Amino acid sequence: MFLRVCWYIWSIFRCHNSTICGTFPEQKIYINLQKLRKVGFRGMHSTVEDVKLESMQVKILPALQDNYMYLIVDNKTREAAVVDPVDPELVIKTVQEQNLTLNKVLTTHHHWDHAGGNEKLVKLWEKELDVYGGDDRIGALNKKVSQDDSFTIGSLNVRCLSTPCHTTGHICYHVTAGDGKGEGAVFTGDTLFQGGCGRFFEGTPEEMYEALCTKLSALPDSTKVFCGHEYTLQNMSFARHVEPDNESIQQRIEWAKLRRASQDPTVPSTIGEEKIWNPFMRVHEASVQKHAGGATDPIITMGKLRKEKDNFKA
Ligand SMILES: [Zn+2]
Fold first, then answer.
1. pLDDT tens for each residue of 285-297
2. Pick from 66, 67, 152, 43: nearest CA to 101
3. What does the similarity note say (predicted)?
4. What is the pTM of this model?
5. Rounded to an integer, what distance in angstroms lies between the CA atom of residue 201 and that of residue 193?
6. Annotated catalytic, 16?
7. Helix/strand/coil percent split, the chain, to 5
8. Which of 26, 150, 203, 237 has its CB surrounded by the most CB atoms within 10 Å?
9. Percent of the chain surpassing pLDDT 70
């Protein structure tokens, strides 16, 4: 542990690039202290950030190497739910600091890096927690859900979208204001990433097509997309390889590079944006079909793209 702390302090203070090395030592320390303040001694991969919507606030909480957990807070009641709490201590600390009422856990799928903190959170959090999910392999599950099941977080509505493929029991959660007005948010786990999608571990191209191009595409374009991992730069590099003439991809890469240079998260995007730059949501487009071998069937295109991405080196 002591050696780890030493290594971390050293890594914070060493020169990362020539711009910083070229500055005065005091400036260098100032820049690095700013970074330290943002990511903390825990060495998180990204900064904690709040996204404010009309009816809710979404707190982005980084975990593990590149995972994201999310705290969804209802503005009216301060009731909260947490998505994929793999780091329960950070969740509890944040909930206590913000004086929130946490009573729900939304699990996207059973993989350890998403559901692996459920049991510990239930144990540490002494009040009652409803643990939602679509798969019996999820720890501490007590509210099993399927397509179109709904529940509330304070005054917010949550609708479940069953999106099997990455895993058979994968659920995406669409959260909207009680009156259905204003921007909504969707928590997509490892089904839809910014610029990409999850591997087809337990499903088929037909199922991913249904998830991305039927269910998630049907949400309003303004819906904010909060996905399970910080994979944007890797995914966008593949997107550019598929559609080199798509300018929105290049622009997003430039933007994401700036964000990542200061360890800021690149989430959220929106459903409308994903339709513009995500090749897996663009399998109807002639440019994407041509890249994937020329078949005009979007499902064949989906399968070919995923196979190519599985072996793609950014
Ligand atoms: Zn997964």
1. 999 999 999 999 9
2. 152
3. Belongs to the metallo-beta-lactamase superfamily. Glyoxalase II family.
4. 0.88
5. 15
6. no
7. 40, 20, 40
8. 203
9. 87
Q: Determine the Cα–Cα distance for residues 87 and 69; give it in Å rounded to an integer.
A: 8
Q: Is 166 a catalytic residue?
A: yes
Query: What's the one-letter identity of residue 154?
Result: G
CA separation for the pair 105, 128 (Å, rounded):
11
**Which residues are within 5 Å of ligand 1 (an ion), measured at CB?**
111, 190
Question: Which DSSP symbol is given to 229?
Answer: B
Pairing of strands 79-83, 67-74: antiparallel
Contact assessment for residue 233 and residue 257, using Cβ atoms and an 8 Å cutoff: yes
Please state the domain extents for the chain: 49-231
Between the CA of 60 and the centroid of ligand 1 the distance, in Å, is 18
pLDDT of residue 7: 42
What's the CA-to-centroid distance between 114 and ligand 1, angstroms?
7
Judge whether 241 counts as a catalytic residue: no
User: Using CA atoms, how far apart are residues 296 and 285, in angstroms rounded to an integer?
Assistant: 9
- How far apart are the CA of 190 and the centre of ligand 1, in A? 5
The beta strands (E) that lie in 16-126 are given as 49-52, 56-63, 67-74, 79-83, 101-106
User: Is residue 153 within 8 Å of residue 80, measured between CB atoms?
Assistant: yes
Closest Cα to residue 209, out of 299, 82, 99, 92?
A: 299
| Nearby residues of 197 by Cβ (< 8 Å), 6 or more positions away | 166, 191, 208, 212, 278, 280, 306
CB 48 within 8 A of CB 57: no
Length, in residues, of the chain: 314
Class of domain 49-231 as given by CATH: alpha beta
